[in-house]
Amino acid sequence: MRKKLVTIRDDLGIFDAAKAFARTGVRRLPVVTKKGILVGVIAVDDLIMLLGNEMGQMAGALSTGLRRAS
Q: How confident is the model at residue 24 (pLDDT cuts 50, 70, 90)?
């Protein structure tokens, strides 16, 4: 367990979350407002699932585009 709590602000994006996960090695980040109020928690698994879904949608769109071009 870390001595200092690592958090991420709710106005930051998924790339900021990915950087925080990589930099700190934690698997969960409390999400806080600018005033430090807890509004949620994001897990590294959530981020991986989101990115996986996005990649799947991109692959589908590329596949559709390639079929139309043929």
A: very high
As a whole number of angstroms, the distance between CA 58 and CA 65 comes to: 11
pTM value is 0.73
Phi, psi of 65 (to 5 degrees): -65, -40
* Contact by Cβ (8 Å): 29, 20: yes
Could you give the domains of the chain?
8-69 (3.10.580.10)
Starting at the edge strand found earlier in the chain, the sheet holding 38-43 runs 8-9, 28-32, 38-43
Nearest to 57 by CA among 47, 69, 68, 65: 65
